[in-house]
């Protein structure tokens, strides 16, 4: 019972977002491709399917449904601006400033380590 509820909820969500129309369009194109390939070679069937001059009944119904959708619902909202913050080492900033570049570092550079790493003790040969 719970699965049926989730399935119906997912279908309702798909329909409210008008995502059933592209799925139906794929079904229509598949049917057209099969139908046209029975009458003509595959190359001609593909051309007839996707040229827009030979729509089937389902394609016409989908087009009418798409025209009913208000224009503001068809536009996807703009994604938020992507902000990337990368820490810049002090040496790079100094070299860029020396080259005449304007550097604006809002993030403090991480501390630089200049000491040599410790040498591990030798391994036993046994």
What does this entry show, briefly?
The protein has 126 residues and is mainly α.
Tally of contiguous helical segments? 6
In terms of quaternary structure, the protein is: single chain
Count of DSSP strands: 0
- Mean pLDDT across every amino acid position: 78
Strand content: under 5%
Low-confidence stretches: none
What string gives the helices and strands in order? HHHHHH
Q: What's the helical proportion of residues?
A: 40-55%
What spatial form do the alpha-carbon principal axes imply? elongated
**In terms of structural class, how would the helical and strand content be classed?**
mainly alpha
Our Rg estimate from Cα atoms comes to 31 Å
Q: Determine the N-to-C terminus distance.
A: 67 Å
> What can be said about the biggest beta sheet?
none
Question: Which features does this protein show?
Answer:
single chain, 126 residues, mainly alpha
């Amino acid at each position: 019972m719970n699965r049926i509820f989730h399935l119906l909820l997912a279908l309702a969500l798909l329909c409210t977002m008008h995502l059933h129309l592209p799925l139906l369009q794929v079904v229509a194109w598949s049917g057209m491709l099969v139908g046209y390939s029975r009458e003509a070679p595959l190359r001609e069937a593909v051309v007839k399917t996707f040229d827009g001059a030979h729509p089937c009944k389902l394609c016409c119904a989908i087009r009418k449904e798409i025209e009913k959708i208000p224009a503001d619902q068809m536009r996807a909202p703009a994604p938020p601006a992507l902000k990337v913050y990368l820490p810049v080492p002090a040496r790079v900033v100094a070299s860029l400033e020396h080259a005449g570049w304007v550097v604006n570092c809002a993030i403090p550079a991480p501390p630089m380590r200049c000491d040599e790493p410790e040498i591990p003790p030798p391994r036993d040969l046994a």
